[in-house]
Amino acid sequence: MARAVAPLNFNAFLEKAKLKDDGSNFVDWAHNLRIILTASQKAYVLDAPLGDPPAPVESLDVVNAWQAHSDDYSIVQCALLYGLEPGLQRRFERHGAYEMFQELKFIFQKNARIERYEISDKFYACKMEENGSISDHILRMSGYSTRLAELGMPLPPEAITDRVLQSLPPSYKSFVLNYNMHGMNKSVAELFAMLKAAESEIQKEHQVLMVNKTTSFKKNGKGKKGNSKKSGKAVAPPVKKPKAGPKPETVCFHCKGTGHWKRNCPKYLADKKAANNKQGICDIHVIDVYLTSSCCSAWVFDTGAVAHICNSKQELRNKWRLAKDEVMMRVGNGSKVDVIAVGTLAL
Q1: So where are the chain's domains?
Q2: Full pLDDT tens readout for the chain, 347 residues
Q3: What is the C-alpha separation between 301 and 313, in angstroms, rounded?
């Protein structure tokens, strides 16, 4: 009993996906062509020539089998011609199905090689920006790997996973370290789910405490302002008592002399004026902080400091570079370091 074969209908496919004269869509066209030929059990036509007809002395079964194959080759030949643009149709109208497909592959395979090179370059150069969307990044890289597989260069799942981890920004450094230390071997879909969970945690931890350079406080008086009319009596303004000056035995903390304070010390005022004349030098206090948290983006600030140091230029906004020796900082051990850039950090 003969098997039922699905009817071959190329119209729905080839009418909208004709092979262009320049062959720019050859890879997709050939891939879709094999799908529809496989469904109709005629894909073998693209892999081998028809061959010569059998001799007259052959049995009837052999002749009928060859005739059935010849009919398949004719159907596929017409379908191939129907799927070509006019320029290619005129060129291949006298070719058989197998010969036509092989010559098209020979002519336009170079385009596939160029596209494969461009896609692989984008795949290996792809980097996720800091604070970018992990969903968009994974979908982009997954699209590149899928396209490479369609172009005949499938990548192992482990290579795709490693490339995704390599493309993550510095804020995911602890995640990558933990992944490799535990010897995880996840698929791209499983890795994507893990990265989505890590993304929300990283966004919570990636907060910077901004501290003002100076902060002033005003003492609130015990009495309320105004409203002297309510009592019907005018209230006299308080009389300021003159501040007592330094006593003769007062010792200056700067010059160790007597009779004046440090703020009035002539030597201290002269030294302060000379220090202000030194352009581009500022003193700061540096505190060594040992973080036990796994997050590498945490900040600790000394609220009494007048300047703060950032160890990454990439996180600075509105930054401008400084020339060598333009601005220097003196750290806790007394040494001086150059400042290479100045900028702001957003919350």
Answers
A1: 11-111, 126-205, 247-277, 279-344
A2: 444 555 556 666 666 678 888 877 887 888 888 888 888 888 899 888 988 888 888 888 888 999 999 999 998 888 888 888 888 888 898 899 999 998 888 888 777 778 888 888 999 999 999 888 999 999 999 889 988 887 778 899 899 999 999 999 988 988 888 888 888 888 888 988 899 888 888 777 654 433 344 444 444 544 444 444 445 555 666 666 666 777 777 888 788 888 887 888 888 888 888 776 654 444 444 444 333 444 455 555 555 555 677 766 667 777 777 777 777 777 666 677 778 787 777 65
A3: 18
Q: What DSSP string runs through 39-83?
A: HTT-GGGGTS---PPPPTTS-HHHHHHHHHHHHHHHHHHHHHHHT
- In order of 53, 180, 192, 269, 323, the CA distances from 141 in angstroms are 51, 20, 11, 64, 40
C-alpha 294/C-alpha 171 separation (Å) is: 11
Q: Do 47 and 135 meet the contact criterion of CB atoms below 8 Å apart?
A: no
User: How many Cβ atoms from other residues are within 10 Å of residue 214's Cβ?
Assistant: 5
Handedness of CA 259, 263, 269, 274 (dihedral sign): positive
Considering the entire predicted model, what is its pTM?
0.40
Integer-rounded Cα radius of gyration of the chain? 40
The closest of 135, 37, 121, 25 to 79, measured between CA atoms, is: 37
Q: Which residue has the tokens 């903390």?
A: 253
DSSP conformational letter for 329: E
Amino acid at 96: G
Beta strands in the chain (DSSP E): 281-283, 317-321, 328-330, 336-338, 341-344
Decide: helix, strand or coil at residue 319.
strand
Residue 51: closest CA among 100, 99, 101? 99
CB atoms within 10 A of CB 19: 22
β pairing state of 336-338 and 328-330: antiparallel
